[in-house]
Design a protein that fits this description.
The chain is α+β, with helices and mostly antiparallel strands and about 900 residues long. It has five domains: about 240 residues, BirA Bifunctional Protein, domain 2 (2-Layer Sandwich), CATH 3.30.930.10; about 190 residues, no CATH class; about 100 residues, Elongation Factor Tu (Ef-tu), domain 3; about 150 residues, Threonyl-tRNA Synthetase, Chain A, domain 2 (2-Layer Sandwich), CATH 3.30.980.10; about 120 residues, Diaminopimelate Epimerase, Chain A, domain 1 (Roll). Helices cover about 35% and strands about 25% of the residues. It contains 22 helices and 35 strands. The longest helix has about 40 residues. It is flat and about 105 Å long. About 0% of the residues have low confidence. InterPro entries: aa-tRNA-synth_II/BPL/LPL, Ala-tRNA-lgiase_IIc, Ala-tRNA-ligase_IIc_anticod-bd, Ala-tRNA-synth_IIc_core, Ala-tRNA-synth_IIc_N, Ala-tRNA_ligase, Ala_tRNA_ligase_euk/bac, DHHA1_dom. This is Alanine--tRNA ligase. One of its GO terms (biological process) is alanyl-tRNA aminoacylation.
């Protein structure tokens, strides 16, 4: 076996398959594109699904890649096992209806064993296969140097994840030798394919040859796919551990530089304490995932991908605390991740100035959350002790985990310091319930589509001419599909898919909806209404039509686009370009398009940005777009090669892939973008642009919805009508007087509030005079308790100020039921002996709340006003227990 590092292994894998005619597909963004079944790209095949389900036919059916991936279903296992990761790379080779077993198995053997490539000793390799797949067994045993007794039948070797492509698979295992054997020879798991540390799986080859159709459960009954495929996966991290003879994936060049930096930051040594080693591994794994995710445009948040990033960041910070790192430190690891991966992912170092501030802000935010979480944990522990419990409940431990990012181990440590255990079983029940809710919320999304043989086999030509014309006077019907079958003719009343030799109909793409229109005979008879247009696997425009006349292949027809719909959509598409440019001009160049929808009556534009856009900024953006509309800028386009387009200054959509030829749309000198949609011919056609709303759609992604033309005018008219109604309610004649009238009413309200507060303060003072004479004494400590309903926290603190001036007791504890919200305020004149903050935490439990403050003054709020009486009564018991 050769001595190779991670970069060399990745490069050699890709070079080998390129030598076998494969196209090297670059590693795609971790954020899935147009795939609602995935939160993250989680495998090498995930970005190629469109080829395997037949929705797109690739230019080259042989593909190889090394794809960055994230999986989050086993986050808790990271660091505790040798090979669990959240971020990893999956190398693979793929055949889309091209080669199959007879090529895939010999090539795999050649890469692994040939002296020109990996040069692994044949005697160290074993394979498993599906028992009914005897062809695979025979092919392996026919390879030069393969040992016949190194094949193992495995019933589980059938890849099937539901409807769509499926088939048998074969796994390749590497024998690491006796020193890695962790089970006795007679253990049922001690074999290649079992759960053991000696035989390590390094490669999985799936023979995707069957179609799992809806309702089928017996894989022996699955029909053959129209096109058989090869899908393989070789995890880079575990393969590197073999070449570097590492006990786990973490003792390799992919992780050790990060671990060594953490050693310097913590003063601890990796490899000396198993418990601390877990923290080193978690940090090294999580910082890789977070760095790559943020580089690809994901940002921390409270849901979806944002929640995953936030959780990983917080877990890493907590494990840093376990190592004694009290200050933010993850930003110092980002450049190290960048240098490790620079040979294949130079964008990490290039983007580090965008990645580091995001991580720093999140670490700083978590520092504040951590303080609040620790306070809640202290409160939970104290409540359990007060009830003489020996265990902290699982639901409380889970709340700390889910809300504050506390690992269960940290909660257990804190509880142990107080002499308590944690209900692990209850915690796991809550965890499972959350996972079940997540799965239910996701629904039954298909991860792979079922191949459509009719569309995949459709090879007829079709030319789109809609960029320059919206009708075709004479074109032929090249194909008809009815009920997923290609036919020669279709009858009136049927719904069919038609392919024309030439078409002016725009197919839905890039967020722009499809054209509608009509199909007529050459003598003007209506034959069909076009209801939808989509791109087929072989790049023809597939027209879904409702037939009102008979049609047949070869028939010549006339096509016409619905111009009202077409013009409305085109204007809104032009508006998205103007909006995109205005966002970059006003907010900054780091804005990236994250999606769009162009409809007839409105447009929607998603973009990457941290935090809401202020109204002032939105007004600037809106004004700039309307200025460009007023300038009547001409809209032109050219088709050129991608490099020439970049030299022109054209902006590409972030994460989008482009072919050799691209279309560049220019709006005067204001905007140039790569684009394949339809547009107005001049900005003046838009008439008016109005932003309707700005909102967040996920972590780091904002959405603007807007209207143009008549829709914008209608919106202004609606707003005017609402202002007129408001003016009438305010009894003012002019809508221009409404702001002044409202301002006057607000001032009156403020004055009334001040008067009310003054009366409240006076009432509080009167009440205080009586309660100051009602002190009690326990253990030599005098205290006053009182409930004065209707008071705010400020009102109660005013009474405390009077109490301090009069020096009538050591402690005062006041409560108020203020419109159903209980409030507690405690003050101490002897803070060294009794801290107000400790006292208030103890009492807050009674009102189902929490609180804190200084040793001399603290307050709490809660949910249960009925508990106020118990809270005040508990003061005596608290003092008796001192």
């Amino acid at each position: 076996m050769k001595k190779l590092d991670s970069a060399q292994i990745r490069r050699m894998f890709l070079d080998f398959f390129q030598s076998k005619g494969h196209k090297i597909e670059p590693s795609q963004s971790l954020i899935p594109k147009d795939d609602p079944s995935l939160l993250w790209i989680n495998s090498g095949v995930a970005t190629l699904k469109k080829y395997f389900d037949g929705s797109v036919v690739p230019e080259n059916p042989r593909i190889t890649n090394s794809q960055k991936s994230i999986r989050t279903n086993d986050i808790e296992n990271v660091g505790h096992t040798a090979r669990h990761h959240t971020f990893f790379e999956m190398m693979g080779n793929f055949s889309v209806g091209d080669y199959f077993k007879k090529e895939a198995i010999p090539w795999a053997w050649e890469l692994l064993t040939s002296p020109d490539w990996f040069a692994i000793e044949p005697e160290k390799l074993y394979v498993t296969y599906y028992p009914r797949d005897t062809d695979t067994k025979a092919l392996w045993e026919a390879q030069p140097g393969f040992l016949p007794n190194h094949t193992v039948p495995e019933e589980s070797n059938f890849w099937d994840i539901g409807e769509g492509p499926s088939g048998p698979d074969t796994e390749i295992f590497f024998d690491r030798g006796p020193k890695f054997q962790d089970l006795p020879d007679d253990d049922p798991e001690m074999y290649p394919g079992g759960e053991n540390e000696r035989y390590l799986e390094i490669w999985n080859i799936v023979f995707s040859q069957f179609n799992h159709l809806p309702g089928m459960t017996d894989n022996s009954q699955y029909p053959e796919l129209p096109h058989k495929n090869i899908d393989t996966g070789m995890g880079l991290e575990r393969v590197v551990s073999i070449f570097e003879n590492a006990p786990t994936n973490f003792e390799t060049d992919l992780f050790l530089p990060i671990i060594h930096k953490v050693e310097l930051l913590s003063g601890k040594k990796y490899g000396q304490d198993k418990n601390l080693d877990v923290s080193f591994k978690v940090i090294a794994d999580h910082v890789r995932a977070v760095t790559f995710a943020i580089s690809d445009g994901a940002l921390p948040g409270n849901g979806g991908r944002g929640y995953v990033i936030r959780r990983l960041l917080r877990r890493a910070v907590m494990h840093g605390r376990k190592l004694g790192i009290e200050k933010p430190f993850l930003t110092q690891l980002v450049p190290i991740v960048g240098h490790i991966m620079s040979s294949y992912y130079p964008e990490i170092l290039a983007n580090q100035n965008q990645i580091i501030p995001v991580i720093k802000a999140e670490e700083d935010r978590f520092d504040q959350t951590l303080t609040a979480g620790l306070a809640l944990l202290d409160q939970d522990i104290q409540e359990s002790k007060d009830k003489h419990e020996t265990e902290l409940s699982g639901d409380k431990a889970f709340k700390l985990f889910d809300t504050y990012g506390f690992p269960l181990e940290l909660t257990e440590e804190q509880a142990a310091d107080a002499g308590l255990k944690v209900d692990r079983k209850g915690f796991e029940t809550e965890m499972k319930a959350q996972q079940d809710r997540a799965r239910k919320a996701q629904g039954k999304l298909r991860t792979f589509g079922v191949q459509d043989a009719a569309l995949m086999n459709l090879k007829v030509p079709s030319e789109y001419v809609g960029w320059s014309q919206t009708s075709v006077d004479d074109t032929g019907i090249n194909a008809i599909i009815v009920d997923d079958k290609q036919v020669d003719q279709a009858k009136a009343g049927q719904q069919a898919a038609l392919v024309f030799a030439k078409t002016p109909f725009y197919a839905e793409m890039g967020g722009q909806v499809a054209d509608h229109g009509t199909v007529k005979s050459l003598d003007g008879q209506l034959l069909a209404e076009v209801l939808d247009v989509q791109n087929g696997p072989n790049k023809q425009h597939i027209h879904t039509v409702k037939l009102s006349g008979d049609v047949e292949v070869g028939q010549h027809v006339a096509l016409a686009v619905d111009m009202a719909r077409h013009l409305a959509v085109s204007k809104n598409h032009t508006a998205t370009h103007l909006l995109d440019q205005a966002l970059r001009n006003v907010i900054g160049g780091n804005i990236h398009q994250a999606g769009s929808l162009v409809e007839t009556d409105y447009l929607r534009f998603d973009f990457t940005h941290q935090g809401a856009v202020s109204q002032k900024t939105l007004d600037q953006i809106e004004d700039q777009v309307n200025q460009e509309i007023a300038l009547a800028l001409p809209i032109t386009w050219i088709e050129t090669d991608i490099e020439s387009a970049k030299k022109l200054g054209a902006v590409a959509v972030f994460g989008e892939k482009y072919g050799k030829k691209v279309r560049v749309v220019s709006i005067g000198d204001y905007n140039k973008e790569f684009d394949g949609g339809t547009h107005a011919s001049n900005t003046s056609e838009l008439g008016l642009f109005k932003i309707v709303s700005e909102s967040g759609t996920g972590a780091g992604t904002r959405r603007i919805e807007a209207v143009t033309g008549q829709a914008a005018f209608r919106l202004f008219k609606q707003h005017e009508d609402e202002l007129k109604k408001t003016a009438a309610l305010l009894d003012t004649q002019k809508i221009t007087d409404v702001p002044e009238k409202v301002a006057g009413l607000i001032q009156e309200l403020k004055d009334s509030k001040k008067s009310l507060e003054a009366l409240s303060a006076k009432a509080a003072n009167q009440a205080a005079e009586k309660l100051f004479d009602s002190s009690q004494t326990v253990n030599g400590i005098s205290y006053i308790t009182a409930q004065i309903d209707g008071q705010t926290a400020d009102g109660l603190r005013l009474i405390v100020d009077d109490w301090r001036a009069k020096e009538v007791s050591d402690l005062i504890i006041l409560a108020s039921n203020n419109a159903g919200s209980p409030i507690l305020v405690a003050a101490s004149r002897i803070p060294k002996q009794i801290k107000a903050g400790d006292l208030i935490k103890n009492l807050a439990v009674k009102i189902q709340g929490g609180g804190g403050g200084r040793p001399d003054l603290a307050q709490a709020g809660g949910k249960n006003p009925a508990g106020i009486k118990d809270a005040l009564s508990a003061v005596k018991q608290y003092l008796q227990n001192l």
